[in-house]
Amino acid sequence: MSAVITTRGLTKTFKDQTAVDSLDLHVPRGVVYGFLGPNGSGKSTTMKMLLGLTRPTSGEIEVFGEPLTQASRTRLLPSIGSMIESPSGYGHLTGAENMRIVQDMLDLSSAQVGQALATVRLTEHKDKLVRNYSLGMKQRLGIAMALARDPALLVLDEPTNGLDPAGIEEIRTLLVRLAGQGITVMVSSHLLDEIDKMASVLGILANGKMIFQGTREQLFQHSIPDLVIETPDPAGALAQGISASPVDEGIRISGIDKDQTAEVVHRLAVAGVPIYEVRRVQQSLEDVFMDLTGRGGLL
């Protein structure tokens, strides 16, 4: 797929600390790209560099196939909407008045502003003071500000931060819908299971390094889920020298592939240990993430 964002060796160093280390990003067109990692992993710094808010120490950035430079920044940024760290907005003004400021700054039409408010379902609340908005409404107003210029790319840093489950679901539904309309959405989060529900492509950052980038299916190929062998005789199974842990149903084994599974089952059968069921434990994105980061390996 053609890329909306590409970086090569993107690095940002602050004094003696490297916040982003040789990052190679590939954000395909028209997807929700989930940018994952724990707090302090370098997500926000990366996004600021992509928007030209922070200058890289080294490396290259391409947006829409064109190098992002001081000269090209003014031309490229009007096609990018963003919300970094927290939604902007003046609490003493209404939603409509806040949007009017954006309209005047960007020389937008009233139709563009009205469409942005409608997209995030704030039209009926536009005349309320922003200080009286819920946190979810403030987040949606921030996204409306980012959408007002009809961007081809939307860059959002932790848009669900601090929201309750209903607010999180609302933002998730909105972002998936925007991607379905052809807008590329790059969204960062430390909420792994939430990103799992919206993103089709994932990038996982740890300590400033990319440890995985690809589809969910590709990610799960890098992690072997635990195996549960259901047996009424777990002690007999463990007596066969198998490295496993006893569980209510029988025994649980970590990190063995299909061939090793067949060998274990054969050994138990030969020893006369009854086997009722053999199954893999279903994994969540968080399980796989912890597996990868715990190993410390790069993929």
How would you characterize this protein structure?
The chain contains 11 helices and 15 strands. By secondary structure, the chain is of the alpha/beta class. The chain has 2 domains: 3-220, P-loop containing nucleotide triphosphate hydrolases (Rossmann fold, 3-Layer(aba) Sandwich); 227-282. The strands form 3 sheets. A 6-stranded mixed beta sheet has the order 7-8-9-4-10-11, sandwiched between helices. Strand 8, helix 6 and strand 9 form a beta-alpha-beta unit. Helix 4 (110-119) packs across helix 5 (135-147) and helix 5 (135-147) packs parallel to helix 6. The protein starts with a strand and ends with a helix.
In brief, what are we looking at here?
This protein has 299 residues and is of the alpha/beta class. The protein has 2 domains: 3-220, 3-Layer(aba) Sandwich (Rossmann fold); 227-282. Helix content is 35%, strand content 26%.
CATH topology of the largest domain: Rossmann fold
Main sheet: strand order: 7-8-9-4-10-11
Q: How many DSSP E strands? A: 15
Task: Evaluate the radius of gyration.
Answer: 24 Å
Parts with pLDDT < 50 across at least 5 consecutive residues? 295-299
In whole angstroms, how far apart are the ends? 20 Å
Largest sheet: 6 strands, mixed
User: What share of the residues lie within helices?
Assistant: 25-40%
How many structurally independent domains? 2
- Secondary-structure arrangement, i.e. CATH architecture of the largest domain: 3-Layer(aba) Sandwich
Helix and strand string, N-terminal first?
A: EEEEHEEHEHHHEHEHEEHEHEEHEH
The structure class reads: alpha/beta
Q: What's the CATH superfamily of the largest domain, by name?
A: P-loop containing nucleotide triphosphate hydrolases
What proportion strand?
25-35%
Report mean pLDDT, rounded to a whole number.
Answer: 88
Looking at the structure, what is the overall shape?
elongated
What's the tally of helices? 11
Q: What's the level 1 CATH class of the largest domain?
A: Alpha Beta
